């Protein structure tokens, strides 16, 4: 959640007047963490009450795409899942604009993300992800997968002149392996996935989850893939070393909430591989591309692609469940 778009106090005041009656800004601070959208902490006094928010300005997601994400978050919140649903404006709509870019105002969540999750916290996160998959079945809308095989192949070709030959060979081999398994993946349970349930997207207040953020990679895909993406972050370090105890705890808690099928259990290693593969490619794109992420005013917006390559290689050694 870096700062790419600067907002003046006057622009903020005009925006907030579409949400509140006679708002008085008491806090306005850019958030340096994150890599894709611009985010600010905003506190407002209105009607004698002070409330606390996060203003998110979308740098990549278009206004046409956003209603499906807003519908998902609102649907999850209605099911009791801790997703911060966007706050409606006075006219009832949830999507605003600033500097010509779409934006939303969501409640600020108490607490913060973990640095190094414990065994118990991994189990809590596994249960949470299972609960999200079940709750999302009644959420409205649909969004197809963006990071398809075609997406991977196209970016592999773009990256060919930037990465080493052994990396290109690994990338090509993994894409081909995933493509060959298309029929198997089509048989795995699917629905809404978060798509990015890293440690920094789950807020804890003490020992309890206070909220889940950053649903803007959500789409319809295999639930097992979502589980693998999460485990690759919660249960594996930056050098690609899996913590087997954490991995078992996370998966066991998920399986208790949303039982895995036998096919999913057989696909576990491949799920970890493709989860790391997609994020390896996206980080390589960020590193070698010339996009807006290089122009952030605050925050380190680029994440090390080598971390995901290491996890991809380690995933080959993980057995079926």
Structure explained in plain terms:
By secondary structure, this protein is an alpha+beta fold. It has two domains: 9-107, Phosphorylase Kinase, domain 1, CATH 3.30.200.20; 113-315, Aminoglycoside phosphotransferase (APH), C-terminal lobe (Aminoglycoside 3'-phosphotransferase, Chain: A, domain 2, Alpha-Beta Complex). The chain contains eleven helices and ten strands. It has helices at 9-16, 66-78, 119-135, 149-159, 165-180, 182-185, 223-234, 244-257, 262-266, 268-288, 305-315; strands at 24-30, 38-46, 49-57, 96-98, 101-107, 112-113, 190-193, 202-205, 208-212, 219-222. The strands form three sheets. Strands 1-2-3-5-4 form a five-stranded antiparallel beta sheet, covered by helices on one side. 36% of the residues are buried. This is Homoserine kinase. InterPro entries: Aminoglycoside_PTrfase, Homoserine_kinase_II, Kinase-like_dom_sf, Pseudomonas-type_ThrB. Belongs to the pseudomonas-type ThrB family. It catalyses: L-homoserine + ATP = O-phospho-L-homoserine + ADP + H(+).
Quick structural overview:
This protein is of the alpha+beta class and 321 residues long. The chain is 41% helix and 17% strand.
What descriptive keywords fit this protein?
321 residues, alpha+beta, Phosphorylase Kinase, domain 1, Aminoglycoside 3'-phosphotransferase, Chain: A, domain 2, 2 domains, five-stranded antiparallel β-sheet, three-stranded antiparallel β-sheet, 11 helices, globular
